[in-house]
Design goal:
The complex is a heterodimer. Chain A contains 15 helices and four strands. Chain A is mainly α. Chain A has a domain of 213 residues. In chain A, the strands form two sheets. In chain A, strands 1-4 form a two-stranded antiparallel sheet. In chain A, strands 2-3 form a two-stranded antiparallel ribbon. In chain A, a hairpin with a 1-residue loop joins strand 2 and strand 3. In chain A, helix 2 runs parallel beside helix 7. Chain A is globular, with a radius of gyration of 20 Å. Chain B is mostly helical. Chain B has one domain: Orthogonal Bundle (ABC transporter involved in vitamin B12 uptake, BtuC), CATH 1.10.3470. Helix content of chain B is 75%, strand content 3%. In chain B, a hairpin with a 2-residue loop joins strand 1 and strand 2. The longest helix of chain B is centred in the N-terminal third of the chain and has 32 residues. Chain B starts with a helix and ends in a 9-residue tail after the last helix. Classes of the chains: A mainly alpha, B mainly alpha. At the A-B interface, helix 4, helix 5, helix 11 and helix 13 of A face helix 3, helix 4, helix 9 and helix 11 of B.
């Protein structure tokens, strides 16, 4: 598949989603809305994990910052419930990016397992504040939002809010796609493959990684603002370690370094957590099994399966090619 | 706030630190020897408590519950290492996701077997009395936790420093490739260490069950704290784990007593700072 047909395929799926979603029931619309928001989070993490090779164990922190900012502004200052919603979106992105810029000073120096550990610690700092800073964050109970914004359009309608989120998702996908295809994005991939070589070639690899970290934080913040209004509630659960781990699974399950894979992974994980859990009591066995089987049998995620199938169909006449599936 | 406040809080901190040592020393050894980021470690702790509850229910013996729970969790760890983790090789991201997957399986299994209620492990009456020392009331169970951790720490230290096995483990921590080169079976060492780490976590779960209780969610609640212990002390070093757990235990207690609103922040911010400045931890082996 050329990149043009891929783009057409993605656009077609998105268009189909936008047309079909309003005709499903309220529960499904909200489910899709939430999946799209988590898809933004997963794609932000994919910039780090898939394209730069930095496995972050604290991406939920930026979701939390965007979400808590939205909730605190709405409840304490009555701000962000009209046209000012758009200001909150910008503020959420900026605050999360600024936090990432600060955290990045510590984290980006590290690599591999130390990067995992340090992002875990930084994420737990944010969680600790959310959980304990009662006067600001409501502690364990979290914060209930007064309602979704209204500016001519009532976003309290789930369909209207779906379209807002859909717009942000499509825009994020486009912007991140342009980013990873740009020379900057190519350099990130170079750093993922061989950082020493990129440094020898004269690239400031620290700065590249640092900028990627900030960009990922900013998109995480955007997801957070949308997340707060989707649920009408924020709580420390949004920032907890398992949320960060879920985000990692979304990327790895979908296929790291593909952007779209993260979105597919987000939909799959949310489906397990929010839909399967309403059907069966033992849904966590399925979730755990998905984690384990993905790691053992899907090194390139679901997107990798598609590539592998295509390769083996091309390579029917040349069996030796089929024996070498791509392993990154 | 007189001196009694400080003494009691320090004592409480040390006793909590003693519990954290049981949890953190295993995690630290596993990380030091195998470079595995084990996110199932909190589950071992929780399962240890649950197995002990079942043993107490069946036999009525708390003393018997301790070794049975710790050994069953060691077996769980051993199987996980042999059957799954071994296949991954050195890839921290995949280790994290695989061990989290197991943590979810364990969580669901615990819920199905032991239910969703908060449970308590009731230690024998002789341990729940209060000792009065110099006008300070010291709960007997906390004294017991400190003694237990000290004893375990001493045994671990003797094994690590004064036996052939310990020397082989230290060699594997320092340079696994060289260790293999001089004929140490590092694969067997890894298996032993992983089982030992799980054993210690399970043991901690039994002891902790009389102090924190046993309840769903404890696994992921205690896990990041265990990582703080390991990071602050330094990975793969027993002394580091001891000092790390004391620091975290005391910091946690004073944090909650003095500035409760930022108490977790004061725990994890130093962890991030230490990682940034000195990734091997305060007392880690270089």
């Amino acid at each position: 598949m050329t990149s043009r047909t891929k783009a057409v395929a993605v656009a077609g799926v998105l268009l189909g989603l936008a047309l079909i979603a309003p005709f499903t029931d309220a529960f499904v619309i909200l489910l899709i809305t939430r999946a799209l928001i988590l898809a933004i989070l997963a794609m932000s993490l994919d910039i780090l994990l898939g394209f730069t090779g930095l496995p972050s164990l604290g991406q939920a922190a930026y979701l939390g910052i965007g979400a808590y900012l939205t909730a605190i502004l709405a409840t304490k200052f009555n701000f962000g419930l009209g046209w000012s919603f758009w200001v909150v979106v910008v503020l959420g992105i900026l605050l999360a990016a600024a936090t990432a810029a600060f955290f990045g000073l510590f984290a980006v120096r590290a690599s591999g397992v130390y990067f995992l550990m340090i992002t875990l610690a930084l994420g737990q700092c944010v969680w600790g504040l959310a959980y304990r800073w009662n006067s600001m964050t409501g502690g364990d109970n979290g914060i209930n939002l007064p309602g979704r914004p209204a500016f001519g359009i009532q976003l309290s309608s789930d369909v209207a809010y779906f379209y807002v989120v859909f717009g942000f998702f499509a825009l994020s996908l486009l912007m991140l796609y342009v980013l990873v295809k740009s020379p900057f994005g190519r350099s990130l991939e170079g750093i993922r493959e061989r950082e020493v070589r990129m440094r020898t070639l004269g690239y400031n690899t620290w700065l590249h990684k640092y900028l990627a970290f900030i960009i990922a934080g900013g998109f995480g913040g955007l997801a957070g603002v949308l997340w707060a209004h989707a649920n009408g509630h924020v709580s420390p659960e949004d920032v907890v370690l398992t949320t960060s781990v879920d985000a990692l699974l979304m990327v790895v399950l979908g296929g790291p370094g593909t952007l779209v894979g993260g979105a597919i992974g987000a939909a799959a994980v949310l489906f397990l957590r929010e839909y399967l859990s309403t059907l069966v009591a033992w849904w966590q066995y399925v979730l755990g099994a998905v984690y384990i089987l993905t790691i053992l049998y899907l090194p390139d995620g679901l997107m990798g399966v598609a590539t592998r199938l295509r390769r083996s169909s091309i390579a029917l006449g040349r069996p030796e090619d089929a024996k070498h599936p791509v392993i990154s | 706030m007189d001196w009694r406040f400080w003494l009691i809080q320090t004592f409480n901190g040390i006793s909590y630190g003693a519990l954290l040592f049981l949890l953190g020393s295993g995690l630290s050894l596993i990380f030091g020897v195998m470079r595995i980021v084990n996110l199932s470690h909190g589950s071992y702790f929780l399962l240890g408590g649950y197995v002990a509850l079942s043993v107490i229910l069946a036999t009525g013996s708390w003393v018997l519950a301790i070794p049975i729970a710790a050994l069953s969790i060691a077996l769980v760890g051993l199987l996980m290492e042999r059957l799954f983790l071994r296949r991954l090789g050195f890839d921290p991201l995949r280790q994290v996701l695989l061990t989290v997957g197991f943590a979810f399986l364990f969580q669901q299994a615990a819920l199905d077997i032991w239910g969703g209620d908060n449970r308590d492990i009731v230690p024998p009456a002789s341990l729940t009395q209060t000792a009065v020392v110099g006008g300070l009331h010291l709960p007997g169970y906390r004294v017991f936790m400190i003694a237990m951790a000290a004893a375990i720490g001493l045994i671990l230290w003797l094994v690590m420093e004064h036996t052939r096995l310990g020397a082989a483990v230290r060699a594997t921590v320092d340079d696994a490739q060289m260790a293999r080169g001089v004929g140490i079976d590092t694969s067997r060492i890894s298996m032993f260490i992983f089982a030992l780490g799980a054993f210690l976590a399970g043991l901690g779960g039994v002891i902790g069950g009389g102090f924190l209780g046993v309840y769903p969610g404890l696994d992921f609640q205690i896990l990041p704290i265990a990582f703080a212990v390991v990071i602050i002390g330094g990975m793969g070093s027993l002394g580091g784990a001891a000092i790390g757990s004391l620091l975290v235990g005391i910091a946690d207690n004073f944090g909650k007593a003095l500035f409760p609103e930022i108490s977790y922040f004061t725990l994890y911010a130093p962890m991030a700072l230490i990682l940034a400045v000195r990734p091997t931890g305060l007392f880690g082996r270089e």
